[in-house]
Amino acid sequence: MNRTGVIYGINGPVIYLKGNTGFKMSEMVYVGKEKLVGEVIGLNQDITTIQVFEETTGLKPGELVEATGDAISVVLAPGILHNIFDGIERPLSEIAKTGGAYITRGTVVDSLDQTKLWDAHMVVKAGDRVRGGTILCEVPETKAIVHKVMVPPDLEGTLIKVMPDGQYTIKDTIAVLQLDDGSEKELTMMQKWPIRVPRPTRKRYPAAKPLITGQRILDTLFPIAKGGTAAIPGGFGTGKTMTQHQIAKWSDADIIIYIGCGERGNEMTQVLEDFSKLVDPRNGNPLMDRTTLIANTSNMPVAAREASIYTGVTLAEYYRDMGYDVAIMADSTSRWAEALRELSGRLEEMPAEEGFPAYLASRLSAFYERAGMMMNLNGTEGSVSIIGAVSPQGGDFSEPVTQNTKRFVRCFWGLDKSLAYARHYPAIHWLSSYSEYISDLAPWYKDHVAKDFMDCRNRLMVILNQESSLMEIVKLIGSDVLPDDQKLVLEISRVVRLGFLQQNAFHPEDTCVPMEKQMKMMETILYLYDRAKALITMGMPMSVLKSENIFEKVIAIKYDVPNDRLEMFEDYKKAIDEFYDHVLEKNA
Amino acid sequence: MAIEYLGLSEVNGPLIALEGVQNASYEEIVEINIDAKKKELGRIIECYEDKAVIQVFGGTENMSLINTRTKLTGHPMEIALSPEILGRTFNGLGQPIDGLGEIVSDVHRNVNGQPLNPVMREYPRNYIRTGFSAIDGLTTLIRGQKLPIFSGNGLPHDQLAAQLVKQASLGEDSDEQFGIVFAAMGVKHDVADFFRRAFDESGAFEHVAMFLNLANDPVVERLITPKVALTAAEYLAFECNMHILVILTDMTSFAEAMREVSSSKGEIPSRKGYPGYLYSELAAIYERAGIVEGVKGSVTQIPILTMPNDDITHPIPDLTGYITEGQIVLDRELNGQGIYPPINVLPSLSRLMKDGIGEGFTREDHQDLANQLFSSYAKVGDARALASVIGEDELSPIDKKYLEFGKAFEAHFVGQGADENRTIEETLDIGWKLLGMLPKEELDRADTKILEKYYKPAETEEN
Fold this sequence. Notes:
The complex is a heterodimer.
Chain A: E1 4-11, E2 14-18, E3 27-31, E4 36-43, E5 47-52, E6 64-71, E7 73-76, E8 83-85, H1 92-99, E9 118-122, E10 129-131, E11 135-140, E12 146-150, E13 156-162, E14 166-168, E15 173-179, E16 184-188, E17 191-194, E18 203-205, H2 216-221, E19 229-233, H3 240-250, E20 255-261, H4 265-277, E21 291-296, H5 302-321, E22 325-331, H6 333-346, H7 360-368, E23 372-375, E24 381-390, H8 400-408, E25 411-412, H9 417-421, E26 434-435, H10 438-448, H11 453-477, H12 484-501, H13 515-537, H14 542-547, H15 550-555, H16 557-560, H17 569-587
Parallel strand pairs in A: 8-21, 19-24, 19-25, 20-21, 20-22, 22-24
Antiparallel strand pairs in A: 1-2, 1-6, 2-5, 3-4, 3-6, 4-5, 7-17, 9-11, 9-14, 10-13, 11-12, 13-15, 15-16, 18-23, 23-24, 25-26
Helix pairs in contact in A: 5-6, 7-8, 11-12, 11-13, 12-13, 13-17
Chain B: E1 4-6, E2 10-12, E3 15-19, E4 28-34, E5 38-48, E6 51-56, E7 68-76, E8 78-80, E9 89-91, E10 108-110, E11 121-122, E12 127-128, H1 133-138, E13 141-142, E14 149-151, H2 157-169, E15 178-187, H3 189-201, E16 208-214, H4 225-239, E17 243-249, H5 251-264, H6 278-286, E18 291-292, E19 298-306, H7 315-323, E20 326-330, H8 332-336, E21 343-350, H9 353-356, H10 366-390, H11 397-414, H12 424-435, H13 448-454
Parallel strand pairs in B: 9-16, 14-19, 14-20, 15-16, 15-17, 17-19
Antiparallel strand pairs in B: 1-7, 2-3, 3-6, 4-5, 4-7, 5-6, 8-10, 11-18, 12-13, 20-21
Helix pairs in contact in B: 2-3, 6-7, 10-11, 10-12, 11-12
């Protein structure tokens, strides 16, 4: 613990120590009189390089740097949920209590409340043989989530003492473990884990279940699996954050970790306000009860921005180990990549593409590979899904972060500027987006939604693709010259775009749509298409079909049919039949 | 503290290096005395053991390796603040240049500021009426927002900003205390003069603190100007409970200055030669807007930046757009058609708008109307593209209607007089009147109920 070094040079968030300090790589250090938190990022015979997670203004050469012996890690215990942390797991509300409106430097606060008493219910007894991951006790952390306190992954042995059920703080001993070498270890509800190391699991399952988000274009066209990875790239103002908010609000994950990495302060405030008010549709609890926010806004120190992504994924893995499905929203991974670039530049490393360091790709892949549907050490099944926003420079998807991300994610939800300009939200473009999970998830959809779900979904895609090639012609010569069957394709794809893909996040019914309704909407649209096509084949002109308001009526289904009144779809079917008969009668 | 260091070890552009220093701290301010005649301020931007690299704000002219005496001040850049700064003019470092004497105050603030804790922020919800239809109606400005104007050289952004300040400060809540902090980075004398006159004419000058770094002032000074101005703004807003509107012009010069200094420091460039930390630096400025819980005042930012070659994907507007809460984009083509203000509404956006409009704030139909106008105007673009290929005559009747709608929208909704100050009702009513030119079936973004209440088809068309 008494290993220290002396500051030799300072350059922004990077400081140098002279001499061989004996510090370890990735070790957490306290820098200077103000005890700023830092991490060792480079070592050689003469110089130790450290990145500092706080502003270095006012630091002087000659000040002391103190090693802590631990790698930079997070504290894992009850109290994580319903909380907001900075990039290195310091609770912002506690910082506000001591530091006021601004985040001051060198604030020392505990990551989690160490005095709060939690109701613990023990599930093991003395004499039990336990190993890493074994659940020791259950603690109702929030109304929605039971926190399961586990044996740290690297321990194994026999319990020689277990405290009775009751109220404990996270520092109190709840059990005593005798390790195989005979030594005894007191276990508390708290454990620490280094953020850059994935928590161990027993094995990885293939993707089989979708993460249902209530967003039609995602669930139906480009689904993500539980334990899957997705990227949402888009220029500014195309709705990355909005899409992330929607998923965080309505997806059927048990736990949401929302990482605001280098984004706006007001956005985090908004999440905090909204999620406290909104209610989880599945159990009626406030959404904040299943949510943890990690806020490292764009003006907070850059090194902590780099760490925030890892902090978030470590917290997620911890809840996965309890057997929960966790979804991470990382907004935005580009800011994290830029933090890498900034630090790399300060270290005078050789830049690769656009100034990003050459290890950008390996860092990205290491991050996304921490997602997955896993069998945990304790035999439970849990998943971490990662949904990362990407902010490509100039909205150009060919830049390095987007391209490298594309290699490691299996879902790509490309946001489009022209859709956003026309206020078509979500502005996810159906032609540039893809999901590699489609075939993995097809059996699930078949069993849980409808047998012909995949067929319907594929037909929608075909219609949209046809529209795009027809639009090429329309752009050149106008739509009047098209034959009627092609005009119908244009009309139906309009119905698909406006009535199905476009979804209003501010409309109480439309903001989250259950899978059954999505399926019924799709069926109704395709039914309309089939009937209209039959009419066209009989020689009815498109203008006659359009004079009926059936198309507008189907578009309005998303607003007109409440989510719990799916029997109303029968009326639409009837209306389409009537439309068919009516056109036939009129023009027979 | 009183130690003076004689001479320098290196002078390189705006940077100087000093050896044998003791107790120098990172970002500390130093005073440099040249030939015992001229005094310059500098900031330590790197330090190694006993060597400090100093950025000189005023430039390194006349410095030699032997004729300087350098003194450490022991603290980072600070300025003295009091409510008296309103009505005063300062240079880019916050020193008075209007001949009215120093600001005397016990309050000194570090200009670097500190990040605002998201927990202590209050989400901005109160809209500011600017009197411009295109802004009030479609990209509503919210108190506590940062909403930049993306412009180009030769476009009337200055006029727009001046009118906006004038009209916004005349709003309904004029009994509340308001103030304007104006920071100029590398702008022309004429532009600074224009603003001063505009503030004078509107009688607002008593409420304005001006921080001027003009085009021929030292480049390095520009790097600190917005920070000085925002420190003043934060002081007025959060300690004096005033509503502060901050105009920063021109952010492009600020970024250029950063590139200049970065390259003389020999840093590795990232995009277009700008340093890798451009985003962080811009964010450190833009994020200093907002409302703090429990405090009456607010800081609203309107940065102006000229897009190099009108390119919105250039790193400066691009990174700005990722940080700010929307943007107002000016368009050369609209300007060419004599439309003022030439706001291109499609790429313009206000992210905070959705929570600050509607019933209780503006009017219930506001959001629906805005969505519909955006959507319909986007279709105008398609119709125009088609018309340019096949000719206007060949267009379908509905496309022709869109062309008419587009023209009228630009002329009557976006376009307005140079002193015209529209109320929100006027703006919304004009919007509905324009939508009346389109058949009801085409309006697919507005709620059916709203449509029934507000939509009236235009009667017969003139001409």
